[in-house]
Design brief:
The chain is of the alpha+beta class. 51% of the residues lie in helices and 9% in strands. It folds into 2 domains: 163 residues, Beta Polymerase, domain 2 (2-Layer Sandwich), CATH 3.30.460; 127 residues, no CATH class. Strands 1-2-5-4-3 form a 5-stranded mixed β-sheet. The longest helix is centred in the N-terminal third of the chain and has 35 residues. It is globular and about 75 Å long.
């Protein structure tokens, strides 16, 4: 493939970059949900689209197997899943094979990492795409032709991946061989540490006494704030299911069309709600609870959601407002003094708003 073709693909990727960014968010949220449903404890899940300025790093345009379309390049959209133990990696792999189409020719499964002569402590890598059942859903159909790459690592493997490239500096052949031998040993020690932690964890579970820790009263420290992440927000609503149900009902009562989304749609709405809470600097459970409580005072929340409907009455007939989306609109309006000075496109708030309006 010549440089002209590479430039054409680069321009096409720039045009579709927002779609890839959106897919990275949706795919990472979906994987997090699917894995947690299987009872697998995650350390973190992240997704991103390759920056447009790094596009040409994805391939060599002069190579025989150079890509001819964007769908040939899996790492334009990438997701990384970090788990605690090697056994968790294998559990995640089972979920992957059940829920996605796997391109085995462009994947590195755990079974392929058993070579005793392999270098270092590499991670599992998959090239995936949506299966037919999910791709046929309205919410996912626009991503049906997009592949994405998935790395599944333990936390210790992440340390190897983060630090090893820093050591690859130009040097003479003799020094390079010595460093490589040392890295072989370091990789083996890290792998042994991973397995050792799991063995200790199993032993601790087996020998643990059924005793709850003593309750210690500690004076609250204002500076020590609990981080309010997506998982914490999801847990909050699992414990307060009545809140989104209530606001979906109120939205319908003030005039928004009745809307009954499926579970995946709601999960995405929850993710966008978290995005706007982060942008509005509501970064603790206590702050969010105070906001929820404030909506009840003198029916402040109902009055505000009714005001939004009246201001956009004509367009609102095509809006899709579930309970999480209603809360999204309330945060958008009641915290506008904070949000108006933020980059709402970069913070994912604009996409959440467009989705409610049926644009995305």
């Amino acid at each position: 493939m010549n440089a002209t073709k590479a430039d054409e693909l680069g321009k096409k990727y720039m045009q579709q970059y927002s779609l890839y960014r959106e897919f990275a968010t949706r795919a990472s949220n979906l994987l997090e949900s699917l894995v947690e449903q299987d009872g697998i404890q995650l350390y973190s899940v992240s997704g991103e689209a390759k920056p447009t300025e790094n596009f040409l790093q994805s391939f060599d345009p002069q190579a025989d197997a150079a890509p001819t379309s964007l769908t040939d390049i899996a790492d334009l959209c990438s997701v990384k899943v970090l788990v605690h133990f090697p056994e968790d990696v294998e559990k995640v792999e089972k979920v992957i094979h059940q829920e996605f189409l796997v391109d085995m020719s462009r994947s590195m499964t755990s079974s392929k990492l058993d070579d005793p002569d392999r270098f270092g402590y590499p991670a599992v890598y998959y090239t995936l795409s949506l299966n037919q059942a999910r791709a046929s859903m309205r919410e996912w159909s626009k991503y049906k032709d997009l592949p994405f790459s998935l790395e599944v690592r333990t936390v210790i493997q992440e340390a190897w991946a983060a630090n090893t490239p820093k050591l690859m500096l130009p040097t003479d052949a003799s020094t390079k061989r010595r460093m490589q031998r040392k890295l072989f040993r370091v990789g083996a020690l890290l792998e042994e540490a991973d397995e050792g932690y799991y063995t200790l964890w199993e032993s601790a579970r087996e020998s643990a006494m059924p005793v709850t820790p003593p309750v210690v009263t500690v004076a609250p420290t204002p500076a020590a704030k609990r981080v309010f992440d997506r998982s914490a927000l999801r847990q909050y609503f699992q414990e307060h299911e009545e809140i989104p149900d209530k606001w979906a009902e109120i939205a319908s009562e003030v005039g928004f069309p009745a809307f009954k989304p499926d579970a995946e749609y709601l999960d995405t709405s929850l993710s966008y709600l978290w995005d706007i809470l982060r942008a509005a600097e509501m970064d603790s459970p206590d702050e969010f609870q105070r906001f929820i409580d404030s909506l009840e005072r003198e029916e402040k929340g109902r009055e505000q959601i009714a005001t939004v409907y009246k201001a956009f009455e004509r367009e609102a007939q095509s809006w899709r407002v579930d309970g999480y989306s209603a809360l999204f609109l309330l945060v958008l309006n009641l915290k506008w003094d904070v949000l108006q000075n933020k980059d709402l496109v970069e913070l994912n708030v604009k996409r959440g708003s467009d989705r409610i309006k049926g644009i995305a």
